[in-house]
# Entry
Amino acid sequence: MAEGKEMELLHLTDHENSVVIRVLGRRGPDGLDAEVVVTSSFCNGRLGLHLSSKDLDDWVKALDDLALGRSICWMTDLRNPEINIEFNTQFSVPLITVEDVQGSGTAMAVPVDLPDGWINEQRERLEHVRQL
# Structure
């Protein structure tokens, strides 16, 4: 990755809320330093991540499930915060929750009105990250 250049693995945003995973750089041959950033009109949060190739493989499976309209829970191994994307909630749009299960125990959930084609956009982002 070029010096000072960040890449986003995940970019889910609307006019009010967002959940973004920024890749900050490499960590050894099989890892990436990253951060998840959650923003809303109410509060903001940021947590560091260490993504492995297995995490990226699991993200492929999660995107496949999301494409079928299934809710997902990604990164459940307690190394990183869990990312949940739920359909069929009280909101008319997906509810995205980031939970720091192992650390602070804090969770932040935001509904995000996602545009058509958002899953394909996430797949493209994943392919760019894999090329690092």
Q: What stands out?
A: The helical segments are 53-67, 118-130.
